[in-house]
User: What shape does this take?
Amino acid sequence: MSHTLLTTEELSAKIKYDARTIREQLKDAVLLEGVHYIRPFGRRKILYVWEIIERDLFGQGTVAIPMANGGVCHG
Assistant: This one.
C-alpha cells in the first residue's frame, strides 16, 4: 500500500489554502485523524494522506459525520 504523505506546507501549496487555515480550521473541522492525516510515531508532526484528501476534494468520497456513540453517519 503506497500513500503520498505531505506536510502542512506541501498540502497548502497543492490545494491553494494557507497553511495556517489547514492547521487551525480544516484539521479540526473537516480532516479526520487516521483518515486524512496521521501523526507518525505519536509525535506532534502531522502528515496528510494526499490520495484521501484528493478523493474527498473531488466528491468521490462520502461525507462521514462522527457521532457521539462512536459511529459514523454517512451524509
